Automatic annotation (TrEMBL):
GO biological process, one term: amino acid activation for nonribosomal peptide biosynthetic process
PANTHER family on file: FATTY ACID SYNTHASE, NONRIBOSOMAL PEPTIDE SYNTHETASE
Alphabetical list of SMART domains matching this protein: PKS_PP, PKS_TE
InterPro entries per the UniProt record, alphabetical: AB_hydrolase_fold (IPR029058), ACP-like_sf (IPR036736), PKS_PP-bd (IPR020806), PP-bd_ACP (IPR009081), Ppantetheine_attach_site (IPR006162), TesA-like (IPR020802), Thioesterase (IPR001031)
Protein name listed in UniProt: Peptide synthase or polyketide synthase
Organism annotation: Streptomyces venezuelae (strain ATCC 10712 / CBS 650.69 / DSM 40230 / JCM 4526 / NBRC 13096 / PD 04745)
Upper taxonomic lineage: Bacteria, Bacillati, Actinomycetota, Actinomycetes, Kitasatosporales
Length: 345
């Protein structure tokens, strides 16, 4: 089984030097290759892997163990991305897509000794019903994270884009319960995230960022949901941005997840937080309209706001070549918070 998995990895990653203890993401794996890997595992071993499975078992040896069992010991939406050696974990909350596959490079950029967990949105797996509000989502995440959080440790929360709003609301709710909150890291998160009145924002985001397709939105909107998903799968497979046997039902859940999260954002009212938030602000602002404040508006609601510049734009800040600086800045802010608390960094 391990030999077969190594062979799959070599083909997907275009490498010859794959060992059973190598990390998929450290070898150059990314979200699209992760999807292709789950498809190959299903074809070879008739086992369905989730993103959580892959992130929790990112080596061939660990993955083989999951396949032998036929399933994982479920932690719900909770995913351990990096075990680390410290006693102060970082918890990453999902962006509007609901997935957490963007976070492994961030975790590694912080250093392999940093414990790092992530939580994906409810609704991505078959049979799950998405939650209806940011407050509900934050409460559900706290219950998930509590199962692994070290007793007495401070809570360090980060989130990319919409995930920053989830990190903020989670921090508010933990503080209200008397818990110690450390880093609240907002990765280029605006205080209000609006779909700008565009009813097709979710579909456009999936098309351009996920599938990298340019199709007529009006035409797609006119198709029944089942047919729309089938068309998108067909076009994405032809474009090489989706594996050949990716199923339309999974894609439909992804589109729905975008929309559920956008609806929750539209209804969310940001309330004051009696603590510090750290905004990781991109230096390439060519995608912005030029009217955004330096702190993206957070000083209006947080007791203290720290702004850290990081290279790239909203999308490239988490990609190789830029993410390394982001990881370093996150680690610096984590250490700075410990010093303020009187804990050795």
């Amino acid at each position: 089984m391990e030999l077969q998995l190594c062979d799959v990895w070599r083909k997907l990653l275009g490498r010859t030097d794959v060992g059973i203890h190598d990390d998929f993401f450290s070898l150059g794996g990314h979200s699209l290759l992760a999807i292709r890997l789950t498809v190959e595992v299903r074809r070879l071993f008739q086992v369905d892997l989730s993103a959580a499975d892959l992130l929790s078992a990112a080596t061939v040896a660990e993955l083989a163990e999951i396949i032998r069992r036929g399933s994982t010991e479920s932690r719900g939406q909770l995913v351990r991305i990096q075990a680390g050696t410290g006693d102060s974990p970082v918890y990453a909350l999902p962006p509007v897509s609901g997935t957490v596959l963007l976070y492994p490079p961030v975790a590694r950029a912080m250093g392999t000794d940093q414990p790092f967990w992530a939580v994906q949105s409810v609704g991505l797996q078959p049979g799950e019903t998405p939650l209806g509000s940011i407050e509900e989502i934050a409460d559900a995440f706290i219950e998930q994270l509590r199962t692994v959080h070290p007793e007495g440790a401070e809570w360090n929360l980060i989130g990319y884009s919409m995930g920053g709003l989830l990190a903020y609301e989670t921090a508010r709710r933990l503080t209200a319960r008397g818990e110690r909150v450390g880093l609240v890291g907002l990765l280029d998160t605006r205080i209000t995230v609006s779909p700008s009145g565009d009813p097709d924002f979710a579909l456009r985001a999936l098309l351009w960022r996920g599938l990298k397709l340019e199709l007529d939105i009006d035409w797609l909107r006119g198709l029944p949901p089942e047919e729309r998903a089938a068309v998108l799968v067909e076009r994405a497979v032809a474009a090489g941005t989706m594996p050949a046997d990716f199923d339309a039902d999974r894609l439909r859940r992804m589109i729905d997840m975008y929309q559920f999260n956008l609806d929750a954002l539209a209804a969310y009212e940001v309330k004051p937080y009696d603590g510090t938030v750290t905004v990781f602000r991109v230096t390439d602002r060519s995608m912005e309209d030029g009217t955004l404040p330096e702190d993206l508006g957070w000083s209006a609601v947080a007791a203290r706001t720290v702004v850290c510049d990081v290279p790239g734009n909203h999308f490239t800040m988490i990609e190789p070549g830029q993410v390394e600086v982001l990881g370093r800045r996150l680690r610096e802010q984590l250490a700075a918070g410990r010093v303020q608390e009187g804990t050795p960094a």
